[in-house]
Amino acid sequence: MTESTVVQSNEAASFARKAASSTFNRLIKYTALRLVTLFFTVVIGIYLTILIANMGGYVDEILKGEIRQNISLAISMNPVYREYTVEQRSEIIADQIRVEEERLGLNRPFAIRSLTYLVNALRLDFGRAMQMTSDSGSKLVSNIILERLPSTLVLFGLSNLALFFTSVFLALALSRHYGSFIDKAVVALSPTSAAPPWFYGIFLILIFAAILKVLPFGGMVDAPPPENWFEYALSVMRHMILPASSLMLASIFLSIYNWRTFFLIYSSEDYVEMAKAKGLTSRDIERRYILRPTLPTIVTSFALLLISLWSGAIITETVFNWPGLGRTVFRAIGQYDTPVIVASTIIFAYLLAITVFLLDFVYALVDPRVKVGGN
Asked: Is pTM, for the whole model, over 0.85?
């Protein structure tokens, strides 16, 4: 080996080490900056949620009014206190009101309690619900949420995953037959997605439950629930038909139209025409030159779909009496149960922040044009 070759080899090795070191430093710097940014975003979002859920402290006044009313009514209806004078009953009522307000922390200023809520929320310490309880009688917010989570995941997980993959594959098929009758029909039906799922749900209940009487009005399982696990699963599937159908009807045509338009844009690129000129099959062209460039968008939509399953659908679950997280949040809003509302939002915020952080690295894996931390 000549001296010049050795020098070139050493220079190449030195350049490779510098490039690797530069890439590592860029990744560390980008990761740290991204984590800090997302953390402050989550903190701001959670604190705003606390303020909104408490109406800036106005919910405290509502709760104090309910406490006074309930305690006063209980004392006045209790025969034990009927022989007491008005002043004595007033003192007892005031003492019980004070104890109850201290138990709920309403004796402290809301500004201080909101910061306490924020610290506890960041630690995922959701505390106890004010009004609601789980089916087992627990007032722990974590138990209430975990008890309702499986119902939401069963309905919205299966429905939305089926909707996503069906839309993508049908849209890809439609992009091959642009201008056909089916393509025009999908475009014409896409405005039907303007109506929310619960709107279709009401009509489905009227037709299939009230008139035809072939499907149940709502709920998750028959009453009493079947003891056999197979019959129990069949009962759940039967109750899922109407809510799942309403979710599909509300989004299927618009989703197909959006993805179909997206695939058509990529199928008209110059490199696709070049691939056709080279004689590649349509499947190879779709896989290499249409689907692969769209992978970042598909992955993003799929990831956001997964975290959206957490919150469910408040009105749709209420219409079908489905015992999921959406209906639980709806009840919490009606009862001013702030811990339950805030807990649901906190978990969604954490899931969203983690997903956004990981997506940057997933983009670099599925698309070689993307460089993490690059300009």
From this structure: no
User: Which CATH architecture does the domain made up of 141-366 adopt?
Assistant: Orthogonal Bundle (1.10)
Instruction: Among 36-45, 199-208, 310-319, name the one with the lowest average pLDDT.
Output: 310-319
In the predicted structure, residue 11 carries a pLDDT above the cut 60: no
Sign of the dihedral defined by the CA atoms of residues 341, 343, 347, 352, in that order: positive
Sign of torsion over alpha carbons 49, 55, 60, 62: negative
Alpha helices in the chain (DSSP H): 3-53, 58-77, 86-104, 110-122, 141-152, 158-176, 181-189, 197-204, 229-267, 270-277, 282-285, 292-308, 314-319, 325-334, 338-366
Structure tokens at 144: 């209430």
Assess whether the previous peptide bond of 368 is cis (omega < 30° from 0): no
Q: Please state the length of the chain.
A: 375
Amino acid identity of residue 96, one-letter, is: Q
Long-range contacts of 36-42 (CB under 8 A, 24+ apart): 38/353, 38/356, 38/357, 39/353, 41/353, 42/122, 42/349, 42/350, 42/353
Structure tokens of 2?
Answer: 């000549």
Rounded to 5°, angle at Cα 241 from 240 and 243: 70
pLDDT tens-place string over residues 265-306: 888 777 777 877 887 777 777 777 777 778 888 888 888 777
Report pLDDT for 241.
92
- pLDDT, mean over the chain: 81
Which amino acid is present at 226?
P
Q: How confident is the model at residue 206 (pLDDT cuts 50, 70, 90)?
A: very high
